[in-house]
Give the backbone structure.
Amino acid sequence: MPTLFTRIIQGEIPCYRIAETEDFLSFLDIRPLSVGHTLVIPKKESDYIFSMGDDELSALMVFAKKVAIALEKEVTCARIGVAVIGLEVPHTHIHLVPINTVGDLNFKNPPVEVAPEAMAELADRVSNRLNEG
C-alpha cells in the first residue's frame, strides 16, 4: 500500500507544492509548527533516512538546502530549523521549519493556523524564489 506521501507524489492527495524534481518533492506541511513549515521527501519510498544510499541521501540534502534558502528569503525567521523524526509517516521526510528560538522546533507545540489562500500564496512565492536561481 502506498504511503501518504506517495499518494501526494502521485497527485491523489493535493498539496502546496514548492519544488519538484525527478527524484524529490517539497511542499508545505498542512499542520505547520510555524508559517512556512515545509516537508522535503524522496519520490522513491524509503521508510528510514539512514537506509538510503549515500548518493540519494546527499542529493536529498542538497535539494532540501535549496528549498531552505528560498524559504528563508520569504519567511521572517532567525533560521530554518531541520528535523528528521521518521515515526509519523513511513516515508523518509525532512522538516524545514522557520524558527526564532529552539522551542519553535518542538513537535509537541500545537500547529499554527494558516489560511489555505495564505498557504498557496506562500508556496508560490517560495517556488518563484527557487526558479530565480
The helical segments are 4-9, 54-74, 116-132.
